[in-house]
Amino acid sequence: MNHYMNNGYVFLEPEYAPRNPETFDEDTSFFIKSDNFFEGFSTFESYSLPDHFFRITSDDEFVLDKYDNTEQFRQSASMYGIHTDKMGKNCG
User: Fold this and answer.
1) According to DSSP H, which parts of the chain are helical?
2) Which of 14, 22, 41, 55 is at 20 to 30 A from 82, Cα to Cα?
């Protein structure tokens, strides 16, 4: 089983038997946009809900929210990827 995000919730679901097969691909897909709000950072926009981005709240929750044209929103929706090898070492 894999983790998927759907309607702002992360859950476990087998890809071969999704709850909503007619919308599964769209609901669990997102666009990675590099340098969208800040140089060197990426954002993750929902495919099925345009203008909705994954972000971290002040309560450290990972949520999907509609874009809000504020500095706080842009900061909380900007992610920096860290590449690691199998032993967890930072690869740059």
Assistant:
1) 24-27, 71-77
2) 14
8 Å CB contact between 62 and 10: yes
The matching CATH number, chosen from 3.20.20.30, 2.40.440.10, 2.80.10.50, 1.10.150.130, for 1-6+26-82 is: 2.80.10.50
Report the distance separating Cα 81 and Cα 90, nearest Å: 11
CA distance 82 to 35: 15
pLDDT tens sequence across 23-56:
777 767 788 888 999 999 999 898 888 999 989 8
